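User: When convenient, might I ask for sequence and structure tokens for a protein?

AI:
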Amino acid sequence: MQRIDKDTLKELEESLTEELKELESSTLQRASLIAEKKVSIQSLHGYLGGKNNHYVDSIRSQFPSPDDFISKWIQGLLSRVKEIEDEQRVKYNGNIYQNSTSHKILKLVQDPIVNKYFLCFLKRNFFRNIKERTREKPSYIHWKLWFGENQMPWGLIIAPAYRKGEWTNDVSEIRRADYQYWTIGHILSTGLIDPDNKNPIHFHDIKEFVVFYKSVLKRLSKSQYEKQIVDLYLEYLEKSSNPHDEPFLIPELRYAGLEKNHKYRLDFSVLNSHVMEFIGFELSPHSTHMAVKGIKGRKQKDVNDEIKEKWSKETSKRNEYFLSYDISTITFSDKELEDIDSCFETIAAFLQKRAPKSTSLKTSLKELSAFQIK
């Protein structure tokens, strides 16, 4: 699996570092006033960065985004402060003394000026330690996906930017994306990419996107089973209470991107960013995947060798999607495709997966501000 390249991470870090430099002077003045002593940039960073393993379990936990990391950091700080105060009440006959290091950090980050620096600092910390923070091997290939038939491929890019004659990501915007990756909301925010066009194809609302899926993507398919799955997926979206957050059921995910002599395509794929789980689905009737023609008059060994070669190609396809995209594959056989509703129920189970509910950064910031400290 390809990792995020060094240039991308460097650009993200430089952008955040520049923002921190602009905030540094006013932040240090304010921090010194709150602390009632001169605060250097080194001591401020010691306060903000020295408690990562105290306020969050940064070694064993997975953080899907900078906001999630910061929110859990704040929750950890608040929990530690409350824990200290509970211990003090027991020890000092109901009295509390807000003089611990955690109380000092809380007082600092409650201040609006210091808080702005604090949020940017932890966001940079997240990207500097992205491998450890996400516990994934972030693949640049997931940031730019191509799907569809040879005659009409489409792109889904996290932060699309057209530069030097090709589509890529605007790295500075990736961290600001306010939608779940690879969802309907993602598509409505960024549009889909026509590789021959300098502008994304935008949809004003879900209805427009549904028309596009049905009238363009569905019509390109030659498989009756794929068309039935599309219809069931669009019904699924219609019934959803939050269609914007529903993962996009990607048709014909292209293994080799825009290369015309592509190696493989997956019939359908779900990249579920809610749980960071990637799954592909192959509708594999025997007639199109394993059938051997002209058996009459051929030696059994020759027939077996052809079947072996076809099976080898099928297994190689699944293995390579897993190794390159971290996508596991479920295959529906002829027998299973006789009950297409049951097949879609399997797909829907992966579309519906959501991470355990966590506290949003907005809520954590409200709790941080509301905590009473003298």
Notes: The chain has two domains: 6-137+358-370, 140-338. The mean pLDDT is 86.
